[in-house]
Design brief:
By secondary structure, this protein is mainly α. About 80% of the residues lie in helices and about 0% in strands.
Length: about 190
């Protein structure tokens, strides 16, 4: 579960803060008038945080194995692939937060209180989803961290594979694509 939280901090917070910082110091306007296309600028903002997120996964898995002596019982490649899909959704949330924020402080507050806290409390990380009221359980279906927690626990602790986890992986991939696409469209609209 800590891997999901670390990925959230690295990708969500840093993405939202980096883009807002560009707005604050005025370099975003310089990028807009430069000859690069909007998709190139968006990729330039998202690729470094994707790499940072995947490095965080490697560090967590290494620490888990060496410090805590917890082996990964399932496929490490499936774990990395799932982590990439989870990072997609977090990058989308980070980009979205950056489009609605005017300052870095505002971006941090929105990211923490409007995105991270609901994800932590509704994902099953803090409280089991089964013990939540039925009304609250409905909201857990839109939380990417919930699916990532199911996947990472299944791969690391139980050693199960894609045959058992394909639905969660597909849902998380779909959520990542939708969230990232909507955020990119909103970001492009803000650029124009």
């Amino acid at each position: 579960g800590i891997a999901g939280l670390l990925l959230m901090i690295v990708t969500l917070l840093l993405t939202s803060l980096a883009v807002v910082k560009e707005k604050e110091i005025g370099t975003l306007e310089q990028l807009i008038v430069s000859p690069i296309k909007p998709y190139q600028m968006i990729l330039g903002k998202l690729i470094p945080f994707t790499i940072l997120g995947m490095v965080a996964v490697i560090i967590v898995i290494t620490a888990m194995r060496i410090i805590f002596n917890i082996p990964v019982r399932g496929s490490i490649f499936l774990l990395f692939g799932s982590s990439f899909f989870y990072v997609l959704s977090l990058l989308g949330f980070g980009l979205f937060v950056s489009t609605v924020s005017k300052t870095q402080q505002q971006a941090m507050m929105i990211a923490i209180f409007a995105v991270m806290m609901p994800m932590v409390f509704l994902s099953g990380f803090t409280f089991p989803v089964e013990n939540m009221p039925k009304v609250i359980q409905i909201f857990t279906y839109i939380i990417p961290l919930k699916y990532y927690m199911i996947i990472i626990r299944g791969i690391v602790l139980k050693g199960i594979g894609i045959a058992e986890l394909w639905q969660e992986i597909l849902i998380m991939f779909g959520m990542g694509v939708v969230i990232l696409s909507l955020s990119i469209l909103r970001f492009k609209k803000r650029l124009e």
